[in-house]
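On clarity, I found the account of how folds are encoded harder to follow than it need be. An entry of this sort, consisting of the sequence and the corresponding backbone structure tokens, reads as follows:
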Amino acid sequence: MRRLVAPYERTPEREDIDMSNGSESHSELTTKGTGWVLFAGVMLAILGIMNTVGGLAALDSSSFYVGDARFIVSDLNTWGWVILILGIAQVAAALSIWGGGSYGRWIGVISASLNALAQLFFISAYPLWSLALFSLDILVIYGLIVYGGRRLG
């Protein structure tokens, strides 16, 4: 819709616009997704620690997991190693993201994707825990893919 302007009202011309606004909008663009990147880094660290502890518990064959769980592929010991290795990779990716490394983004996306799949296979051993970690993995993947190219700080 077109706005009617009274003859005495002055509308801003193109020359009247302050050119410093362009740099402000550029800085707004570069800092827009840093919250998601920070969130993804923190969640990767938390997921990595939880997966490391969970993997060690599975290797120990403790009563932490459902005892008579049936796995589609292999057994609890094998999935314990898988979860442990993914947990270590997730902690390393979180440290790289916080340090500003570009490899941390890709390691984070790959490890969160593999962990999401592993949690779906691991669901028979600990259903609610696996679904919670799966959901957090999806949020981490989103944050790193959409906003992962931005630097923290």
